[in-house]
Write a structure and sequence with these properties.
globular; mainly alpha
């Protein structure tokens, strides 16, 4: 078993903190837009920032990262305070979507890398990257009473999957982990950016409507 810090010692911590900060911001903003208190903003920031990584660590048998490293909780709480202390107009527009795209790709790669480092086979390791990048946002949406990202056709989970799968594939092909991490993150970010720019979405399942239509016609 390789310690996660061996995987890409220079880029790894930055990938981790980038994803953590962005997802924490999205959680805090979900509470801020509902006029909640600083305590609620902090809770949303923390649960959104560490949710995916916590589930990943439990599944791969690793120590839960933020319990053993105070920097993670510190980043989440710091981001929540910044958002609570600044005017709403600073956080309007599409800027957060683009930051979120960066965090999504970075966290997907970091999650896959950590899973590989704990001896997880390639396919489950790639899925751990998706879990790391997406579960926090799912928890945030559920707590905020919004439709979960997983229930919308927009390209989001797919971008995380591309980032983590690209990283794992390149590592298996013998590409240095730092290069594989950058390429994987760029691939995931590019797909998410294209989806944002051109409002792309995956095709939705239409079989159910067709079936209902056929039943009505038969009647």
């Amino acid at each position: 078993m390789l310690p996660p810090s061996v995987l890409f010692p220079t880029l790894g911590p930055w990938f981790d903190l980038a994803g953590l900060a962005v997802f924490a911001a999205s959680g805090a903003l979900a509470a801020a837009k509902r006029g909640q208190t600083m305590v609620t903003l902090a809770f949303f920031a923390l649960i959104t920032g560490v949710g995916g990584g916590t589930l990943r660590d439990l599944l791969i048998g690793a120590p839960v990262f933020w319990v053993h490293d105070s920097r993670a909780a510190g980043v989440c709480l710091g981001v929540a305070f910044v958002i609570w202390a600044t005017p709403e107009r600073w956080w309007k527009g599409a800027a957060l979507d683009w930051f979120d795209a960066v965090g999504l790709a970075a966290y997907a790669v970091f999650g896959a890398a950590k899973a590989l480092g704990y001896g997880i086979p390639p396919l489950p390791a790639a899925l751990m990257g998706v879990v790391t990048a997406c579960v926090g946002g799912i928890i945030r949406d559920v707590l905020a009473g919004e439709p979960s990202i997983i229930m919308r056709p927009e390209i989001y989970v797919t971008a995380a999957a591309l980032a983590s799968a690209s990283y794992v594939t390149l590592v298996l092909l013998g590409v240095p982990v730092a290069i594989a991490a950058v390429v994987g993150a760029l691939a995931g970010f590019a797909l998410r950016a294209i989806a944002l720019r051109y409002h792309l979405a995956l095709p939705a399942y239409r079989g159910r409507d067709s079936g209902l239509g056929s039943a009505a016609d038969d009647a």
